Amino acid sequence: MSNKLKGKLGEDKAKEFLLKRGFKILDTNFRFSRFGEVDIIAQKSNIIYFVEVKYRTTNAYGMPFEAITKSKLEKIISCAQYYLSQSKEKCRSYRISAVSILDNKIEFIENITI
Questions:
Q1: Distance between CA 2 and CA 70 in Å, rounded?
Q2: Mean pLDDT, to the nearest integer, of 85-94?
Q3: Measured between alpha carbons, how far is 35 from 50 in angstroms, rounded to an integer?
Q4: What is the CA radius of gyration of the chain?
């Protein structure tokens, strides 16, 4: 299975996970020029979540959350700020979040920081 296909599978599992928990999916694979991409943009209770999805079939190369670097977080923040400046969605606040999928175990961190 190609990495692109694995990424799509992971994002689909993450979307399903979020939907079951009452999130509304606003956008997927939101790209802000060369500055990066946000895998999933979701909303729940007037909070917009910018979600990075990390999917692994094995932990041979480390745990999924370990792949979120400071540089990656900075890119997500840039994308989030751009999205919010262009969006008509009303929100009180936003959060940078992550979904980790290792085989079939899914974990969600609601608010990650640098």
A1: 26
A2: 80
A3: 15
A4: 14
Give the E-state strand segments of 1-114 in sequence order.
24-31, 37-44, 47-56, 93-102, 105-109
Domains and CATH numbers, the chain: 3-109 (3.40.1350.10)
Name the one residue in this structure whose structure tokens are 């792949």.
67
Residues whose CB is less than 8 angstroms from the CB of residue 16 and which lie 6 or more positions away in sequence, other chains included: none
Q: Which of helix, strand or coil describes residue 105?
A: strand
> What confidence score (pLDDT) does residue 114 get?
66
Mean pLDDT over residues 9-14, rounded? Answer: 89
Percent of the chain with pLDDT over 70: 96
At 88, list the tokens.
């008509």
Q: Taking 80 as the threshold, does the pLDDT of residue 47 lie above it?
A: yes
